[in-house]
């Protein structure tokens, strides 16, 4: 390793997040400090509807306290547990936030969210064969609004800065690459 941990201490914890401060030593012998946010695994779901009218995605919008605004994004979140079956998590978050259930869930990849400061995996799923039901949002999601938009409009929202959530944009880029390759993951 190019960086060695000398010491580590937790400086904050709540049910969703823990923050630690690590004293580190770099390969060149210089010491420093890393602040690390640890979070349990999460998922993001691309709810895609394809039919005679075209292609649509479902987005959720809620107030995001950290940035002081409302922004559309794909359904996403976690259950605040370290061990979780990724597809169960994805199906649960999709149903909770949108009321949608999916006939087919495809795991596209697992990404790291903001790994310069955070240790959190995010499982990316494509949800197809959607059935509309009743949402059951968490207390923190009481202002959640669900929108169904054409794919062309969604991509325009990315380009014009309406969608600023890097996880939604990364998930969509991953989906587009996967689709270009005929719905197959390349072998390593």
How does this model look, in words?
With 188 residues, this protein is α+β, with helices and mostly antiparallel strands. The protein folds into 2 domains: 3-35; 42-180, Nucleoside Triphosphate Pyrophosphohydrolase (Alpha-Beta Complex). It is built from 3 helices and 11 strands; from the N terminus they run E-E-E-E-E-E-E-H-E-E-E-E-H-H. The strands form 2 sheets. Strands 4, 5, 6, 7, 8, 10 and 11 form a 7-stranded mixed β-sheet that branches.
What characteristics describe this protein?
seven-stranded mixed beta sheet, four-stranded mixed beta sheet, 188 residues, Nucleoside Triphosphate Pyrophosphohydrolase, alpha+beta
- Poorly predicted runs are none
Biggest β-sheet description = 7 strands, mixed
CATH architecture of the largest domain: Alpha-Beta Complex
Number of distinct helices: 3
Number of domains: 2
**Percent of sequence in beta strands:** over 45%
Secondary-structure element series = EEEEEEEHEEEEHH
pLDDT averaged over residues: 93
Q: What is the CA-atom radius of gyration, in angstroms? A: 19 Å
The top-level CATH class of the largest domain is: Alpha Beta
The total of beta strands comes to 11
Helix content, binned percent: 10-25%
- What class would the helix/strand composition place it in? alpha+beta
- N- and C-termini, Cα separation: 24 Å
Shape annotation:
globular
Quick description:
By secondary structure, this protein is of the alpha+beta class.
């Amino acid at each position: 390793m190019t960086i060695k941990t000398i010491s580590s201490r937790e400086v904050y914890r709540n049910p969703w997040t823990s923050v630690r401060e690590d004293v580190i030593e770099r390969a060149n012998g210089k010491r420093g400090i890393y602040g690390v946010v640890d979070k349990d695994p999460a998922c993001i779901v691309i709810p895609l509807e394809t039919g005679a009218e075209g292609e649509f995605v479902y987005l959720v919008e809620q107030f995001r306290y950290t940035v002081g605004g409302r922004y559309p994004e794909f359904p996403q979140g976690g259950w605040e547990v370290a061990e979780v079956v990724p597809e169960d998590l994805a199906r649960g978050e999709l149903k909770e936030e949108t009321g949608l259930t999916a006939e087919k869930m495809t795991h596209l990849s697992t990404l790291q969210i903001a790994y310069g400061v955070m240790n959190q995996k995010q499982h990316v799923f494509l949800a197809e064969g959607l059935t509309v039901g009743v949402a059951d949002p968490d207390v923190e999601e009481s202002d959640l609004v669900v929108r169904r938009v054409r794919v062309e409009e969604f991509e325009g929202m990315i380009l014009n800065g309406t969608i600023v959530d890097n996880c939604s944009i990364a998930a969509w880029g991953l989906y587009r690459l996967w689709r270009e390759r005929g719905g197959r993951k390349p072998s390593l």
